[in-house]
Design a protein that fits this description.
The complex is a heterotetramer of chains A (804), B (503), C (525) and D (99).
Chain A lengths: L10 H4 L3 H16 L8 H32 L33 E10 L2 E9 L1 H24 L6 H19 L4 H19 L6 H38 L7 H9 L5 H18 L8 H4 L5 H9 L3 H10 L1 H7 L9 H17 L5 H21 L3 H29 L6 H4 L3 H4 L1 H15 L5 H15 L3 H26 L13 H11 L3 H12 L15 H16 L12 H6 L6 E2 L13 H4 L21 E2 L12 H27 L15 H5 L4 H78 L7 H23 L1
Antiparallel strand pairs in A: 1-2, 3-4
Helix pairs in contact in A: 2-3, 2-5, 3-4, 3-5, 4-5, 4-11, 4-16, 4-24, 5-6, 6-7, 7-8, 7-9, 8-13, 9-12, 9-13, 11-16, 12-13, 12-15, 12-16, 14-15, 14-21, 14-29, 15-16, 15-20, 15-21, 16-19, 16-20, 16-24, 19-21, 19-24, 20-21, 21-27
Chain B lengths: L1 H6 L13 H19 L6 H24 L16 H28 L4 H19 L3 H19 L6 H32 L4 H8 L6 H17 L8 H8 L2 H27 L3 H24 L4 H17 L10 H33 L10 H4 L1 H15 L6 H15 L2 H30 L14 H19 L2 H4 L5 H5 L4
Chain D lengths: L1 H22 L3 H26 L3 H31 L13
């Protein structure tokens, strides 16, 4: 028997809505007055993000207190770490403690936003562990990226706009994160889409950039179709239940409750989940809609880092995590060992990782790595490992952001604005120690090297997949881990080790000039603006060669690198911490329904008045059995695999193997010290043919590369890449093209000919029949008379026949 | 039989002089004009127009007083064969007003063309007299006499430009076909008289209402309607109209297309409502076909016209179809609304159509052309005339809130009130026809608003005062009746005529 | 029916006030163009002031009732009265028509179309305004019909006289199409009146009596109204007049056409056809839904095929009105609310896009998408506004367009009154596809015209040292002018405000719509 | 019995008249044909007056005669006018306006 637990709250929690609101206002200020401010609006952006971060920290602290207060109230020691495993289907699951944990009521507030059909729909906040975590994360990363950007895009023509868009982008993500209902979620979702369009196409003078922006927006928009449809499906599915419980079918809380209530129609849930997942595929760059993501590298590097770490691409993952009850019951995640989410996630992991091998552009390697890591998150969600997946969002954000910023730092100070690892990098670790250090820490985290944060999250996903019976996906996860380690090692080697090449060696390529001439033939303003960021030569002397970046770049790097290690220890079973689990995971405990419906009306803070209560018999568990009448579940009760080094061993070994083999290959292929053609590592140079015989050793290396990499890795990844570029991309482009030509055809043939033609034809018919009738008017009296009398006669005869 | 007649004691009928005052004023006026014309110097012939106008307005006075006095049962005079009821008064007023506007229009035309003036006005007045009588006629004989009285002067007026072969042709065609149609009408009337034994319309009606009509009666009805159909230029009896309209002097065309047509409709209404209503099976389908053909063929042929008068001629044919339309359902519950629709249509149509002819005259004085293209750029150099023409043509096209929309509405209303399938079908045909009609009206407007002036001639148009007055009357009528149709719709509440039939 | 009759002079004054301006202008010689423009602006400003006063006096707590209600005799013989009133459904459109007219007048100040003659132009706009406002306040079928038709001629002349190359054809097409529709519509109106035997042509009489008549009869009458309104909307396949009319019309004409005139059709459905003929509406709803969705896809495909910016925007209207009609066809509160919102939103957004197209044309003398590029460099502000409008048009949440589009799609999931759920769900998915296509064509347009570098042929003013003489094209290219700012800012603000806080409109409409759907429901056995 | 014969005569005359109007090209002949039609009507009227034993037919016939006279007067005047202008009274030449 549970007693009513008093959930503590606080100013920050109740006013968490300010977190997105502040950047939104900041955006308006930047757009309106940014140009007149001394720092072009960047100070407003940074200030607003800092303020948001402050509130987010406050909210985090208060949330932790709230969790604590609930756990104390429920008589349980929240940090005790005993979890209830309700089902004994899986051999590794053990029957946990009987107490379980009380559901921690989210802090929900809502204000009437619009009404329709008598229902009022709100705009508000839904603050729970997930939201708090992401709020903090997004605010923090955004702040760092903005600080980084003040240096990185200094002098850009659209400096102000850049910060405006960044700020709005963060606002969009924050709106989505604390969305109280689906419409608000869509709002944030689409604002991000818009901002990604603006940011990826930031240097829109080049057509490639604007095309990439278009592609990103459009591809995501294809997925958004699913979001619209899914929201509609879910709305009507949940609405009746929700209205009965004092809410409506958009409310995320209500949807969760409805999905877990057992009253929901399975097919509605399934199709709703499918539709929503399509949106996630588009947004989170899952196979097969991932192609926009690498192209999106056309944007400035800070944009890439922001997009790929904590925002935009994790939005899809977030959506699945947020509406997990829908997916959980819709796909019956607890009861099967294969489902759409897991499959898509798994495919994405492998496909993207394979692609990352053949990239020469450092940012593209990172891009594919992001795609692959997103695959992990999806896989995690798909196999019922909610917490590890969310934890992976958390850790991934730090190290991926760090990697991107490091790449930006390299291009900024090391490779003269090139991102080509083979041409313009190599041996940079000496010149840029801080960048290199933070890169390598983050890489280790990404690869899942033990004791780095990625290990704690990724390994948990893999482990839980196995634990929950998703054996096949367990293996996919392992393979993916090895591949990740391998391609990251390759990239690391190419960038920081071996011989300095191209710009990294202080050379100044002609290609760069050619690349930029397009900018030069235009007027001064546009040129300076468009490529100012890439060209502020005055800033670091006349090509003084690679050097370390200034503090505004390195500081974020260092901080992020530190977090790339540290963040993992929030939930590191290896060392016995599980704070993250306690604070973030929604508990699958039944709550009395009355607690949900607030008598005060919808605009009141629902969660504050309500006292959540865990029910007797909860141990049956939400998601396994329907909640008893009068109670409701808001989250499924999930299994947690218990950590053991033994179980982690395969993945550790595979990672090590990946790193090792890749390092060995890289050393051989790219870095042979005795290779006299170091400067010509551009292997397409015909010079190599002349010197091949001279360099026997290198010939061997070359052989390795040909035999192993080309015949094994290359065909596969090349094929994948080919498929990617020609089939998938081709499909996307083809859809675009065929859309255009279908439009063309319809317009020319149907609209102009048939539809319009019919109208025109009727006009012609009228006019022509007039013409045809004109001869009747012959001008001759006799004929007129004949017509007159003839018509009368015919009329008379007919009428006589009719009447008699 | 004759002895029987003589045996009756001769009793002088009591004549209600007030009731027939309009006719008397006209007769006196005609004589006055004729007389003065003989003595008037050629240079002062312009006075004839003024005088004729005053005669027409003078005849209007008793119409008004009769309407005001109202109430009195005046159908007793002339044994119910000549009635002065509200229906008659409304139409009399219409004819007199149209006559007056035509006089205004004729004044400059005749002066500048050097035509006979005195005689013209006499004929015009006589024709109006015929129409005024037509409004009251309730007997085959009086209908016939009124019809001839209004027609014969019109034949001559159509040929008034003696030396113009087109005008000759117009007159001769009109005359020959008109007389032929009269012959057909008369033959029908004779059959009607023969089969019912009377020429009094109400009695004919009573006789026809009993049982099915005989062959001869059917024939009679068809021939009678044919005769009137000629007068209202219903297709296929319309062939004279375009040629005559084009050839006749413009004021005469206006007169024919409005007054003469209205008189034809008056006769048709009277005969149908009082005499032939019993023969539903005959006249309903016949008129249905006539209406459908009239509006459709009039419209599609009008699409091809390049001469504005000829286009208006066809337009007036098709308008005739719209006026005719409600009569196709007159034997149903909708009889009353059908009657009302026709009367309203005639009244409002008169304003708009006369107005259009006024503008044509005013513009033609400058351009000396009857082609539609001669209206190019009118908005540029004569915006007033341009706007007026827009108002008139838009009204003819039936666009609210200009005059004819309410008339068209009434016609549709009558059809839909009837509610039969045939009525709905006709309504749809009519709806399509309004679109076709709009097309050619818009063609003229396009010239006026959008085309450049031909030859770049943008000297202003001088509009003589009488035409100004005519334009003011017609435009005022078109707009005011469109916005406040209640003003005339009251007149169409005609208990007298329909009341006699027990509708 | 409940009505409020306080301040009942307001609507009449607000509607007919522009005629005072027309009368004044008659006495000012045509050569004094400035005076005409001034009178035009003052008159429409005064009208809008009355409109705003109406807004202030409107009792928002009773928005389902007809307010400022007047019922006085007009054509008693045919049982048609001067019945006017305003409720939550018509209020937004009524005020919008006034606001748009004023802004268009302001825009005219230094953007008079080439044909000149502001006297006629402004007079026609004022007359147009009377027709538009009147249509939204009329509560009598015949009165509605009159106002509905009043807009015809002024628009015909606006397109025909001040339009583009092909203006005469386009204007005639516009005119004849609409004429055709309204003729059949009139027949349907009369049929409704006689079949119901209603007391008068007043909306509420007909709505009471209409529900009682036979289903088959309702279906037929609805067919007539359907054609009349569908032409005006325009729905596929009656839409072909629209691209021509829009493309050829002068900027002002396009804006008014998009912002208000098209709404007369959808308004007619909501206000007249559906409540008066519930069973007919139910029978026709699937047809409307299907045609609406065809319109969405078809309009989008049409957009993709265009090479002319203005024509593209015109086709996008077909698609957007498809969403509106889809919402209406569900017969749900949700859908109709969305449709009403969509009407206003589309008016604002597409109106704005047409303004932009007009200004681009004014500067570049062409609207060929292939020849335009790099607007953001040459005219950054205008480029931004274009981007903003395009985003609004493709239904970005937070901007007004979303609230017309998304709830409409949503409502199709669960149509009312037992309409075929499978069909509607299919329609929903296809309509959602339409949003993707909308993104495609709008972004494509934006990418082509705004991004990149300016076409050298227009680079005149910006190229350093280039003689102005050899490139006179560039000479006109300048950023947004003050007059344009004045005319556009309200649009932009309204798009954001309604997007961010849709309750401003939903709150007004919802009670009225709920009452309406209830009435419809009562009429369906 | 007699009356029926008169009616037949009327019908025949009417037909001849109609034929004349339609077939003859000479304006005067057409005028004469119309006279035939009017006289056919007169015969009808008189015959019916006999059959119905009413005076109306007689009166009607008298009016028709008078009107016919007036019509012919006008008609002949017109024929003369045409003749003066064209030196021909063939009707098929009168087709300047058509279409």
């Amino acid at each position: 028997m549970m007693l009513a637990a008093s959930a503590s709250t606080g100013w920050f929690l109740e006013n968490a809505f300010l977190i997105p609101l502040i950047p939104a206002i900041g955006f308006a200020i930047i757009i309106g007055f940014g140009r007149r401010l001394p720092k072009g609006g960047s100070e407003v952006g940074i200030a607003s993000m800092a303020l948001s971060l402050a509130i987010a920290i406050g909210a985090t602290v208060q949330w932790i207190q709230r969790v604590g207060s609930v756990d104390e109230g429920s008589g349980e020691h929240a940090l005790g770490g005993v979890f209830g495993f309700a089902r004994s289907v899986f051999p590794t699951a053990t029957e946990g403690g009987h107490g379980g944990e009380a559901y921690v009521e989210p802090v929900i507030r809502s204000w009437t936003w619009w009404q329709s059909g008598g229902l009022e729909f709100g705009l508000g906040q839904h603050i729970d562990g997930l939201a708090v975590m992401l709020l903090l994360l997004v605010a923090f990363i955004s702040l760092l990226v903005q600080i980084f950007s003040t240096e990185y895009v200094a002098g850009d023509r659209r400096y102000t706009h850049f910060f405006a868009a960044l700020t709005l982008f963060s606002a969009g993500m924050l709106v989505m994160v604390l969305a109280e209902n689906m419409i608000q979620l869509i709002l944030g979702w689409e604002i991000m889409g818009l901002c990604s369009f603006m940011l990826i196409g930031h240097w829109w003078e080049e057509e490639a950039n604007s095309r990439a922006a278009l592609k990103a927006f459009f591809t995501v928009r294809v997925g958004d179709m699913g979001l619209l449809v899914g929201t509609a499906v879910i709305f009507f599915g949940a609405n009746q239940w929700a209205v009965e419980n004092g809410s409506n079918g958009f409310s995320i809380q209500a949807i969760s409750g409805w999905a877990m209530s057992g009253e929901a129609s399975t097919s509605v849930l399934f199709w709703g989940a499918v539709a929503l997942f399509i949106a996630c595929i588009g947004k989170s760059g899952q196979f097969p809609l991932h192609t926009w993501l690498p192209d999106a590298m056309a944007g400035p590097t800070p944009v890439s880092s922001l997009l790929h770490s904590s925002t935009m691409v994790v939005a899809g993952v977030f959506l699945v995590a947020r509406l997990y009850p829908v997916f959980y019951t819709g796909f019956d995640i607890g009861g099967t060992n294969v489902n759409l989410i897991a499959v898509i996630g798994a495919i994405t992991i492998v496909i993207a990782a394979a692609l990352a091998f053949v990239q020469n552009d450092i940012k593209k390697v990172l891009a594919y790595s992001t795609v692959s890591q997103l695959g992990y998150m999806m896989l995690g969600l798909g196999v019922g490992a909610w917490l590890p997946a969310v934890f992976h969002i958390f850790t991934h954000a730090f190290f991926k952001c760090c990697l991107f910023l490091a790449a930006g730092s390299i291009s900024h100070s090391g490779s003269h604005h090139s991102f080509d690892m083979k041409k313009d990098m190599g041996g940079l670790w000496r010149k840029m120690p801080i960048t290199a250090g933070s890169w390598m820490i983050s890489t280790a985290a990404l690869c899942g090297v033990p004791f780095f944060s990625g290990f704690f999250s990724k390994d948990e996903i893999i482990d839980n997949a196995h634990n929950n019976g998703y054996t096949f996906f367990y293996y996919v996860g392992l393979v993916g881990a090895a591949m990740t380690a391998a391609y990251m090692t390759r990239a690391t080697y190419l960038t920081f080790f071996g011989t300095a090449r191209g710009a990294a060696a202080g050379e100044h390529h002609d290609e760069h000039e050619a690349h930029d001439t397009a900018a030069h033939h235009d007027d001064h303003d546009a040129d300076h603006g468009a490529h100012g960021a890439d060209h502020h030569d005055d800033h670091h002397g006349a090509h003084a060669g690679p050097h370390e970046s200034p503090w505004r770049i390195t500081a974020p790097l260092v901080i992020l690198a530190a977090l790339a290690i540290g963040s993992g220890y929030l939930n590191a079973p290896a060392v016995g911490t599980h704070y993250f689990t306690d604070w973030v995971e929604p508990r699958g405990a039944a709550v009395e329904l009355d607690g949900y419906a607030s008598d005060e009306g919808h605009s009141e803070a629902l969660g504050l008045a309500a006292l959540p209560r865990a029910e007797e018999g909860y141990s049956e568990g939400c998601g396994y059995t329907d909640p008893s009448p009068g109670t409701v579940c808001y989250a499924p009760k999930l299994n947690h695999a218990e950590f053991s080094w033994g179980k982690a061993a395969p993945s550790i070994i595979l990672v090590a193997f990946g790193i090792g083999i890749s390092a060995w290959l890289s050393l051989g292929v790219f870095g042979g010290r005795r290779n006299p053609f170091v400067g010509l590592t551009r292997r397409f140079a015909p010079a190599r043919w002349i010197h091949t015989l001279l360099v026997r050793k290198y010939f061997l290396d070359d052989l390795y590369e040909r035999v192993i990499v080309r015949s094994v890795a290359h065909p596969i990844s090349k094929a994948a890449y080919w498929v990617n570029q020609n089939i998938l991309d081709g499909v996307v482009n083809g859809v675009g093209k065929s859309g255009r030509s279908a439009g063309d055809w319809v317009y020319r043939n149907v609209d102009q000919r048939v539809v319009d033609g019919a109208v025109k034809a009727s006009g012609v018919v009228a006019s022509e029949s007039g013409h045809a009738l004109q001869p009747i008017q012959s001008g001759r009296v006799n004929q007129y008379g004949a017509l007159l009398f003839g018509a009368a006669t015919v009329g008379a005869i007919l009428l006589i026949l009719l009447n008699i | 039989m004759i002895t029987a007649l003589l045996a009756q004691a001769w009793q002088a009928p009591t004549i209600d002089w007030h009731a027939i005052a309009p006719e008397l004023v006209l007769v006196a006026g005609i004589n006055l004009v004729l007389f003065i014309d003989l003595w008037l110097d050629e240079s002062k012939k312009w006075a004839m127009a003024t005088l004729s106008g005053m005669v027409l307005l003078g005849a209007f006075v008793p119409v008004v007083t009769l309407a005001v006095v109202g109430g009195d049962v005046r159908d007793a005079i002339f044994d119910g064969r000549y009635m002065i009821d509200e229906y008659a008064l409304v139409l009399k007023g219409l004819f007199l007003l149209v006559g007056y506007v035509v006089v205004l229009m004729s004044q400059t035309e005749l002066e500048e063309g050097g035509y006979y003036q005195g005689e013209f006005y006499v004929l015009l007045l006589v024709s109006v007299l015929g129409m005024v009588m037509m409004a009251s006629s309730r007997d085959l004989l009086s209908v016939f006499v009124a019809l001839e009285l209004l027609s014969i002067p019109a034949y001559m007026m159509a040929a008034w430009r003696k030396r113009d072969p087109k005008s000759n042709e117009a007159g001769v065609k009109y005359y020959l076909l008109g007389v032929f149609a009269s012959g057909v009408l008369l033959y029908g009337m004779s059959l009607l008289y023969g089969t019912t034994g009377t020429t009094k319309l109400t009695e004919i009606g009573a006789a026809l209402a009993i049982g099915d009509p005989s062959v001869m009666q059917v024939l009679a009805v068809v021939l009678v309607i044919t005769g009137f159909a000629f007068k209202i230029s219903a297709v296929p009896f319309h062939t004279w109209a375009p040629d005559t309209y084009q050839g006749a002097p413009t004021p005469v065309t206006a007169f024919l297309s409005v007054a003469s047509k209205a008189a034809g409709f008056t006769a048709l209404l009277t005969v149908l409502y009082l005499g032939l209503y019993g023969a539903t099976g005959v006249h309903e389908p016949y008129i249905w076909v006539l209406a459908a053909l009239t509006m459709t063929i009039g419209n599609v042929v009008a699409l091809r016209q390049t001469n504005i008068v000829r286009m208006l001629a066809y337009s007036s044919v098709s308008q005739g179809g719209f006026i005719l339309m409600p009569l196709a359902v007159m034997a149903t519950d909708a009889a009353e609304s059908a009657l009302r629709a026709v009367v309203i249509y005639l009244l409002i149509y008169a304003f708009s159509n006369l107005g259009a002819f006024c503008v044509i005259m005013a513009v033609a004085r400058k351009t000396r052309s009857g082609e539609i293209s001669s209206f190019g750029g009118l908005m540029g150099y004569a915006p007033g005339l341009g706007v007026l023409m827009t108002v008139f043509l838009a009204s003819l096209a039936g666009i609210p809130p200009l005059g004819i929309w309410i008339a068209k509405l009434q016609s549709f209303r009558a059809l839909i009130d009837a509610g039969s399938t045939a009525a709905y079908a006709l309504a749809v045909i009519a709806a399509v026809n309004t679109v076709i009609a709009a097309a050619y009206y818009m063609r003229v407007l396009r010239q006026i608003w959008m085309a450049p002036a031909p030859d770049g001639d943008t000297s202003p148009v001088v509009v003589p005062p009488p035409i100004r007055l005519a334009l003011a009357i017609t435009a005022g009528g078109t707009v005011v009746l469109g916005i406040l149709p209640g003003l005339v719709l009251r007149f169409a509440d005609l208990p007298d005529l329909t009341g006699a039939l027990g509708f | 029916m409940q009505t409020l009759t306080n301040d009942n002079w307001l609507l009449t004054v607000g509607t007919f006030l522009p005629l005072v301006g027309v009368a004044l202008m008659m006495f000012v010689p045509a050569s004094d163009e400035r005076a005409h423009k001034q009178i035009g602006i003052v008159t429409s400003a005064a009208t809008l002031a009355v409109g705003i006063w109406t807004l202030l006096r409107f009792d928002f707590d009773q928005s389902e009732k007809l307010q400022f209600f007047v019922d006085s005799e007009w054509i008693t013989v045919i049982h048609s009265n001067y019945t006017i009133g305003l409720d939550g459904i018509s209020l937004p459109l009524y005020v919008l028509s006034m606001a748009v007219t004023l802004l268009v007048m302001i825009y005219t100040w230094d953007n008079m179309p080439d044909a000149g003659n502001p006297k006629s132009f402004i007079m026609l706009m004022l007359v147009l305004q009377v027709g538009m406002a009147g249509s939204f306040i009329a509560q009598d079928l015949i009165l509605f019909f009159v106002f509905f038709e009043v807009v015809l001629l002024p628009m015909y002349f606006m397109i025909g006289v001040w339009g583009g190359e092909d203006r005469q054809y386009a204007s005639l097409k516009f005119f004849l199409y609409t004429m055709f529709g309204s003729a059949l519509m009139l027949v349907a109106f009369l049929a409704l009146f006689f079949q119901t035997g209603a007391e008068s042509f007043s909306f509420h009489h007909l709505a009471e009596a209409g529900a009682l008549i036979d289903r088959d009869v309702q279906v037929w009458i609805f067919a007539g109204m359907f054609i009349g309104f569908a032409v005006k909307v325009p729905m596929f396949p009656f839409h072909t007049w629209l691209p021509d009319a829009h493309t050829q019309a002068p900027t002002q004409g396009s804006v008014i056409l998009a912002a208000i005139l098209l709404k007369l059709g959808t308004y007619g459905f909501v206000r007249i056809a559906i409540p008066m003929l519930p069973q007919g509406a139910k029978a026709w709803a699937p047809v409307i839904g299907i045609l609406a969705v065809i319109g969405i896809i078809y309009g989008a495909l049409g957009c993709l095929a265009q090479t002319d910016m203005k024509r593209l925007i015109a086709f996008s209207s077909v698609a957007h009105m498809g969403f509106v009609m889809l919402g209406i066809s569900t017969l749900t509160e949700f859908g109709i609310n969305a449709a009403l919102f969509g009407m206003v939103a589309h008016g604002l957004i597409t109106g704005m896009l047409f303004f932009l197209a007009g200004s681009v044309k004014h500067r570049y003398h062409t609207l060929e998408i292939n020849r335009l590029s790099g607007m953001l460099i040459q005219m950054p502000r205008l480029g931004w506004i274009l981007g903003f409008a395009a985003m609004a048009s493709l239904g970005l949440p937070g901007l007004a367009g979303f609230w017309g589009e998304f709830p409409a799609i949503l409502s199709a999931y669960n149509p009312n009154f037992g309409l075929d759920v499978t069909l509607y769900r299919t329609l929903m998915v296809i309509a959602a596809l339409g949003t993707v296509l909308a993104a495609a064509y709008l972004l494509w347009l934006y990418q082509r015209t705004a991004f990149g570098r300016p076409n050298p042929e227009f680079a005149g003013t910006h190229s350093v040292g280039a003689a102005a003489a050899d490139d006179h094209h560039g000479a006109d290219i300048h950023d947004v002018t003050p007059i344009e700012w004045i005319a556009w800012t309200p649009f932009l603000i309204a798009i954001v405000v309604f997007g961010v806080y849709p309750q401003l409109m939903f709150g007004v409409m919802d009670p009225a719509v709920t009452a309406l759907v209830e009435r419809v429901g009562a009429g369906i056995p | 019995m007699y009356a029926a014969n008169f009616l037949l005569l009327g019908a025949v005359l009417f037909s001849i008249g109609v034929f004349g109007v339609i077939a003859r090209r000479n304006a005067v002949m057409v005028l004469m044909s119309i006279e035939l039609i009017l006289n056919a009507v007169n015969i009808n009227l008189i015959a019916f007056a006999l059959m119905n034993d009413s005076a109306e037919g007689h009166v009607f016939a008298l009016y028709v005669i008078a009107v016919a006279a007036a019509e012919v007067g006008v008609g002949l005047a017109m024929v003369l006018m045409i003749y003066r202008n064209r030196r021909s009274i063939a009707l098929d030449e009168l087709s300047e306006m058509r279409g």
